[in-house]
C-alpha cells in the first residue's frame, strides 16, 4: 500500500503547462476516451456515473494537459486524473470518514480492486480469475446475477434457494470475491 | 418468495441473518441495501449514496460494480456520448463551456430482451442458462456485446462455473443502425444547400454537437455520423476509394457506413442521421445544444468537404 501511495503521489496531475491546440486535444481525446471510459466503468459499474466521471476527466484534461508531453506520458497522466476523480467519487459515495483525499488514495480506494483495467479482455480475465478461486456456491450465485443478468427470483429458482437467501449469498460471495481480488497480482 | 429449501454447501455458509452489527445496522438491512445497489447497477443508473459503510461492505459494493461491468459489451461507451463529449470539449476550448458541461448526459432508453438461440458452450447436462444483454443499453451496445469477442469472453467466464450451459443471444449481422438521434430528441438544422452536392457527392458537415457526412445518392440525401465507431476519431472522406477513413487506427468504412473490406478490424457501422430537404436546404436531425440554451443551433464549416484524394 505504501508503494501504491508513492506512485500515486508522483503522478498526481501537475499544474497546467503550455496549452495545446484544438487538433492536439482532438487527438488526445480520440486516442483515450474509450480506454478512460472503460476504466471508469469498470470501477463504478453503471453508465450514468461512468459518463459523468469520464466527462469530468476530459474537462480537467483540456484545462491542464501539458502539451509538451508525449502520447504515452499524456495517457498515464489521464489515467491518474481518472483515478483521482474516481477516488473522489468513492469518498462521496460511501461518505468515508477520511479527512482528505490523500487518506483515500493512501488506503488504495481508487484502485485496490484491479488496477488498470482498460481492455475488456483483461477485465474478463480478472473476473475469471476471481470466480475460479471462489467456492462453487459463491461462484454460481455471482455468475447468475452478474454475468447472466438473472433476477433474484430467477437465481433463487435456479439454485433452489429462497430469494432472501440469494440476497444473503450474493452479499457473502461479493465480500469473499473482494477478498480474493485483493490477492490478485 | 420461493419456498425452496436452502442447501448451503460451503463452510460457514448458513444463510441466516447475522446479529446486528456495525453502527447498529442490522445484517438484513445490509443485504437489502446491497441488493438495491446492484439493482441500480443493472439499470445502468446512478445508485443512491450508500454510505456510511464499513470498509468490508464497501469492498463488496465495489466488487459488485466490477463484476457488473465485466459482462460482454457493457463497458463500451455510447458513440453518441463520445461525440457529444468531444463537442463539449471543443466548445470549452473555444470559450463556450458552461458549468452544465459537467452534468451527466441523457441516458438511453431500455430495450427489450432479444430472441435467443441455443448454443452449447460448456459441456454439461445442466439446464440451459441464458446469457442476456443488458436491458438498459442502447441496441448498438448490446448487439455488439453479443457478437465478436464479447460472447467468447462471456462464455469463458461462464465456463468457470462448472456444469453450466448457456444460450447465446444472436442478433442479425451488423447493419447500419438506427438513427444517431432518436425521433423526438433532436432538432433539424440546415447544413448545406442541396444544389451544391451533386449526385454521388459527399460533403462533411459539423453542427454544435454532431459531425457527419451528407451523401447525395440516386435515391436522395442521406447522412452518416462522422465519428469512427472504434475510438471516436473524426473520419475523413477518401474520394479516391470512396471510403471514410479513420486517421487514428486505420479503420475504413464504405460510403454506406459499413466496415470496409480489408479494414484492420470489423467496426460497427456508422450511425445514420436523419435528413430532409426543405427550401433547397439539406437538413439533418441532430442533438440540440443543451449546454448553450440561448444560442441558436448552427451549422459550422458547411462548405469544407474535409476530403482527400489518394
Unreliable segments of 5+ consecutive residues of chain A? 1-18, 108-115, 180-185
Order of helices and strands of chain B: HHHEEHHEEEEEEEEEEEEE
Q: Output the structural class of chain B.
A: alpha+beta
**Order of secondary-structure elements of chain A:** HHHHHHHHH
Spatial strand arrangement across the major sheet of chain B:
11-7-6-5-14
CATH superfamily of the largest domain in chain B: Rieske [2Fe-2S] iron-sulphur domain
Helix content of chain B: 10-25%
Q: Characterize the main sheet of chain A.
A: none
Q: Largest interface: which pair? A: A-B, 90 and 103 residues
Give the C-alpha Rg of chain B.
24 Å
How large is the count of helical segments of chain A? 9
**Mean pLDDT of chain B, as a whole number?**
63
Class by helix and strand content of chain A? Answer: mainly alpha
Q: Which architecture of the largest domain in chain B per CATH?
A: 3-layer Sandwich
Overall geometric form of chain B? elongated
Oligomerization:
heterodimer
Give the fraction of residues assigned to helices of chain A.
Answer: over 70%
Describe the model:
The complex is a heterodimer of chains A (185) and B (310). Chain A is mainly alpha-helical and 185 residues long. Chain A has 9 helices and no strands. Chain A has 2 domains: 2-106, Rna Polymerase Sigma Factor, Chain: A, CATH 1.10.1740; 120-182, Orthogonal Bundle (Arc Repressor Mutant, subunit A). Chain A has helices at 2-11, 22-44, 47-64, 71-94, 101-106, 120-132, 136-147, 152-159, 163-182. In chain A, helix 2 runs antiparallel to helix 3 and helix 8 (152-159) packs across helix 9. Chain A is elongated and about 60 Å long. In chain B, the strands form 4 sheets. In chain B, strands 11-7-6-5-14 form a 5-stranded antiparallel sheet, with no helix packed on it. Chain B is built from 5 helices and 15 strands. In chain B, helix 1 (27-42) packs parallel to helix 2. The N and C termini of chain B lie far apart (66 Å). Chain B has 3 domains: 27-68, no CATH class; 108-173, no CATH class; 187-308, Rieske Iron-sulfur Protein, CATH 2.102.10. Chain B has 310 residues and is an alpha+beta fold. Classes of the chains: A mainly alpha (185), B alpha+beta (310). Chains A and B meet through helix 2, helix 3, helix 4, helix 6 and helix 7 of A and helix 1, helix 2, helix 3 and helix 5 of B.
Amino acid at each position: 500500500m505504501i508503494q501504491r501511495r508513492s506512485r500515486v503521489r508522483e503522478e498526481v496531475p501537475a499544474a497546467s503547462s503550455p496549452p495545446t491546440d484544438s487538433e492536439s486535444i482532438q487527438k488526445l481525446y480520440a486516442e483515450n476516451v474509450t480506454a478512460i471510459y472503460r476504466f471508469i466503468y469498470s470501477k463504478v459499474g453503471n453508465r450514468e456515473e461512468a459518463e459523468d466521471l469520464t466527462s469530468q476527466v476530459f474537462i480537467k484534461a483540456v484545462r491542464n494537459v501539458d502539451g509538451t508531453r508525449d502520447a504515452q506520458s499524456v495517457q498515464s497522466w489521464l489515467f491518474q486524473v481518472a483515478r483521482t476523480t474516481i477516488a473522489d467519487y468513492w469518498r462521496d459515495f460511501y461518505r468515508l470518514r477520511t479527512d482528505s483525499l490523500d487518506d483515500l488514495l493512501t488506503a488504495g480506494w481508487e484502485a485496490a480492486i484491479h488496477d488498470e483495467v482498460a481492455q475488456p479482455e483483461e477485465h474478463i480475465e480478472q473476473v475469471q480469475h476471481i470466480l475460479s478461486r471462489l467456492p462453487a456456491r459463491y461462484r454460481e450465485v455471482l455468475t447468475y446475477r452478474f454475468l447472466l443478468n438473472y433476477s433474484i427470483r430467477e437465481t433463487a429458482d435456479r439454485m433452489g434457494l429462497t430469494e432472501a437467501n440469494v440476497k444473503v449469498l450474493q452479499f457473502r460471495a461479493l465480500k469473499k470475491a473482494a477478498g480474493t481480488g485483493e490477492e490478485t497480482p | 418468495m420461493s419456498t425452496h429449501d436452502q442447501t448451503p454447501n460451503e463452510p460457514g455458509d448458513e444463510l441466516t441473518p447475522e446479529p446486528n452489527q456495525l453502527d447498529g445496522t442490522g445484517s438484513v438491512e445490509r443485504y437489502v441495501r446491497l441488493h438495491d445497489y446492484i439493482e441500480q447497477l443493472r439499470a445502468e443508473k446512478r445508485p443512491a449514496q450508500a454510505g456510511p459503510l464499513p470498509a468490508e461492505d464497501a469492498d463488496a459494493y465495489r466488487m459488485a460494480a466490477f463484476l457488473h461491468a465485466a459482462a460482454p459489451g457493457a463497458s463500451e461507451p455510447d458513440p453518441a456520448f463520445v461525440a457529444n463529449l468531444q463537442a463539449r470539449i471543443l466548445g470549452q476550448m473555444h470559450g463556450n463551456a458552461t458549468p452544465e458541461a459537467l452534468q451527466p448526459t441523457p441516458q438511453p432508453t431500455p430495450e427489450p430482451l432479444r430472441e435467443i438461440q441455443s448454443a452449447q458452450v460448456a459441456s454439461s447436462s445442466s439446464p440451459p442458462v441464458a446469457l442476456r444483454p443488458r436491458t438498459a443499453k442502447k441496441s448498438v451496445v448490446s448487439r455488439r456485446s453479443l457478437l465478436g469477442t464479447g460472447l467468447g469472453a462471456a462464455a469463458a467466464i461462464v465456463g468457470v462455473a462448472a456444469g453450466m450451459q448457456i444460450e447465446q443471444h444472436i442478433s442479425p449481422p451488423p447493419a447500419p443502425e438506427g438513427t444517431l438521434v432518436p425521433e423526438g430528441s433532436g432538432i433539424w438544422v440546415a447544413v448545406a444547400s442541396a444544389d451544391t452536392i451533386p449526385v454521388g457527392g459527399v460533403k462533411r458537415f459539423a453542427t454544435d454537437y454532431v459531425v457527419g457526412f451528407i451523401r447525395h445518392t440516386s435515391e436522395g440525401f442521406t447522412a452518416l455520423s462522422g465519428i469512427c465507431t472504434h475510438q471516436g476519431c473524426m473520419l475523413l472522406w477518401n474520394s479516391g476509394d470512396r471510403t471514410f477513413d479513420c486517421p487514428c487506427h486505420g479503420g475504413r468504412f464504405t460510403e454506406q457506413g459499413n466496415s470496409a473490406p480489408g479494414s484492420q478490424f470489423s467496426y460497427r457501422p456508422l450511425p445514420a442521421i436523419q435528413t430532409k430537404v426543405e427550401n433547397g436546404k439539406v437538413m439533418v436531425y441532430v442533438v440540440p445544444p443543451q449546454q448553450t440554451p440561448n444560442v441558436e443551433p448552427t451549422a459550422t464549416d458547411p462548405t469544407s468537404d474535409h476530403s482527400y484524394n489518394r
